[in-house]
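Tutorial handout. Part one gives the primary structure; part two gives the three-dimensional structure as tokens.
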Amino acid sequence: MRVRSRNGVTSHRRRSRFAAGSGLAMPGAIDPQRRDGAGRVALALAIACCMLVPAAANAHTPLCSCYDNGDGTILCEGGFSDGATAAGVRLVVLDRSGNVLIEGTMSEQSEFVFTKPSGAFTVLFDGGAGHQIRLPGTDIH
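Part two.
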């Protein structure tokens, strides 16, 4: 195909079988050269989606396990799936009505030990918005 540039120079360019206007365009293909701008919008959206995938892959999930020590105390250990420590993360023990019985933060070793409440209770590992875990006392052994 002959192409003439703005300065009048003629060159030869090979046309792709699937080039815009060839009649062989692939269904669903992104054509950034469409005159109505839809191709550029689709291309921008595709790039944006690809950029978001690594952000989701790097997100960390909170982890928390609690154990009954058999001596009237409970040990809770915490952390995050990406290896981040839970040191300083808030841990709350709630009664059946949601009232705070015990409140504190995880130690430098990402541990928290507390005296086992006499009634029903729930442990709340509070790593911030989207990073909370609730463990019913009945699940702690």
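Part three, for discussion. The beta strands are 2-4, 10-12, 62-68, 73-80, 90-95, 100-105, 111-115, 121-126, 132-136. The first strand starts at residue 2 and ends at 4.
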